[in-house]
Amino acid sequence: MAFDVLDEHEQGELVQKWLRENAMSIAIGIVLGLVLIFGWQQWKAHRAQRAVQAAVEYQALVEAADAKRTDDVKTITDLLRKDYPDTAYAVFAAMRGAEIANEKGDLKTAAEDLSWASDHAGAPALKALASLNLAKVQLAQGDANAALKTVDAVQKGNYAALAAETRGDILTQLGRADDARASYQEALSHLDPQAPNRDLVQMKLDNLGAAPVAAATPAKETSGS
Hints:
By secondary structure, this protein is mainly alpha-helical. It has helices spanning about 10-20, 25-65, 70-85, 90-105, 105-120, 125-140, 145-150, 160-175, 175-190, 200-205.
């Protein structure tokens, strides 16, 4: 007999029977649902707390850097990279450490810090910035091929002007003037007319000179009849 033609009493009996037979499954489902909801809330709270703690540590790092307390900067950077590697603050700290190392001429440490930052950056734009800075350091180390590989791996669209300019610098060092010229022209196409570094990119392009003009192929003489 179809369920919808049962009278009210029969429907009630069927419902009660179903509940008795499935009471355990229902109870387990409710408990699991509550556990998942509670666990999700706890996870979000934990993530938020970690972010706040990492932010506090990074602020201390900024203050130490401004005060030129380099030992404190390194200590806090190491702590952020060890305890909060999945936060943007650890990436910022690594990039700040690379900046300080670069100022000291310690290109090896700068490259290591930027490589770590690139590997751990979650946001594509932040990863691109770390990678482009790494390419500049690699170029300063004299490893233009590694620098070119790093730039070429950067996701397109992130820091387009900086990426093209950096690629132009690398190609210039590799002696690939035509390719470098194209990269500088691409960089200029992404820069506003009033961009502060536009003149520098234009100067780099001008230093390469004009592109060589292909020699015209002489016309063949036709023999008279």
